[in-house]
Write a structure and sequence with these properties.
Blueprint lengths: L25 H6 L18 E7 L17 H4 L4 E3 L6 E3 L3 H5 L4 E7 L6 H10 L12 H8 L9 E4 L19 E2 L22 H21 L7 H13 L1 H5 L8 H7 L7 H13 L4 E6 L22 H18 L6 E6 L3 E2 L11 E2 L3 E6 L7 E3 L1 E2 L6 E3 L4 H11 L7 E3 L5 E3 L14
Parallel strand pairs: 1-7, 1-8, 4-12, 5-6, 5-7
Antiparallel strand pairs: 2-3, 4-11, 8-11, 9-10, 13-14, 15-16
Amino acid sequence: MKTQRCDGVTRRDLIRIGGLSALGIGLGDFFRMQRAVADSKGSVDAKAKSCILIWLDGGPTHLETFDPKPDAPAEVRGPLGSVATKVNGVRINEYMPRTAASMNDVALVRSMTSPLGEHSFGSHYLLTGYRPSAALEYPSFGSTLAHARSHSVVLPPNIAVPRFSKSVTGNGFLPSSTAPFAVGGIPDRPDFKVRDLDFYKGLDLTRLDRRRKIVNAFDQFARAKDAAATTATDSDLERAYNLIASKEAKAAFKLSEEPTNIRNLYGRTGANSVGQSCLLARRLVERGVTFVTVNSVGWDTHQDLNQLKQRFPNDRNAHLPALDRAISGLITDLSQRGMLDSTLIVVMGEFGRTPKINARGGRDHWPNCFSVALAGGGIRGGQVVGISDSLGERPKDNPVTPSDLAATIYTLLGIDPASELHTSDGRPIRVTPDGARVVKELLS
C-alpha cells in the first residue's frame, strides 16, 4: 500500500529532535519557555493521567473499520466482511477480531461529523477542536497539555511516534517548546533508536558539562549586571543536559528491553510499525509522559480497499491486521499493568470515506459521517454512542463534532474546556470553542 496521501504528503521527518548542536543549545531551544503556563489554568478532576492518540493519517474508512454495513448494497458494503464483538449487536471489520474481543473496554462514536473534507483542514479540526482560521493556528491536544500542566520528569511531555501530522504544527499559538517531540525512525527495526539523544562526534558528557557551566556563568553575570533581567537559558540547557545524560530517560525508548511475548502482542509489522509504536507509547506514559501521538500513515484509500486486509499469510504491512494487534495489544498490556483506567486511548483520523465505492475500488473523502474509538482513562466501554444511517452517510442521531470530542478529551484529562489560553500578545483563547459540549455518554 502506498504511504503518500493524495495531497502529496510523504513519510518524512517534520520535526527534527533537538540534540545538542555545535553551539550546545539545540535541545535547550526545545525546552525554552516550557515552564511558562497559561495565566488561567482551569482544571477539572482528571480521570486520565495521560493519553495515547493513534492517529490514522489520510482519513480511515469507517465502513471498513468501526461501522460496517453488512446489510447494505454491495457498492456500499464493500469487499470486506464484519465480525461480531463482545458487545451484543455491535460488529466491526472482520480483520479486527482481537479488537472485537476487547470491545467491552471500547466505546465507539459512530456519529462524528464535520464539514471539512480536505486533509489539512480536517486534521486541524480533529487535532485541535477548532476549525482552521487564517488568523490563528490553534494548538493540538498534546501541546495544550504540555503548556497547562507542570512536569517533573526529564522526558518531554508531548511526544510523537515516529512523527506528527504534516497538517498542523502541533503547538499553534503556544510556545514552540510545547510542539510534539518527534522520535523518528521505524520502531519495528532492530536498530531503532531516537536520533540525536546520543552525543555528536567529539562532544562527550565532560565537554557538554563544561559548556553548560560556561552558559550558566554568563547567565549569572547578566543577572548581576541587571537585576531586572530574566532568562530561561540556564534551566532549559539544564533540562536538555539531563535528558541526554540520563540513562533512565534514554532507556524509555529502548524497545529491545521488552520481552518477545510483549513485542509480539502488539504485532511485528515491519515498515507499518503501528504496533511497536504503540508499545513505545506505553513505555513513555509509564514513565510520566502526558501525551503520545502514534502516527499511522497510509489510510488515504482512494483505490483498492482490499489492500487494507491480509491478502496472504504473514502480510506484515496489511493495515487492518496491524491496527487490530496494536489496539488490542495496547488495551491488554495497559490493563495487565493496572494502567488502563489512567490512560486514555483515542483512535481516529481526519474524516471518513464515501459510502459508495468509486470506480477504482476505493472510497473518497467523506467528513459528513465517520467513527472514533476510545478506551481506558474514564471511558465507559462496551457501547456505541451515536449511530449512522443505513449507508453510513450521515449521523442518524446524536451527532458529535470535533469540538465536542475535544471538550470530552480535555475533560477526561483534567482540563476545563471553557478555560483560557493566551497568545503571545496576551489575547485570551478558549481551550475549546464556544458551544462545544462534553459527550457525557462516553464518561464512566
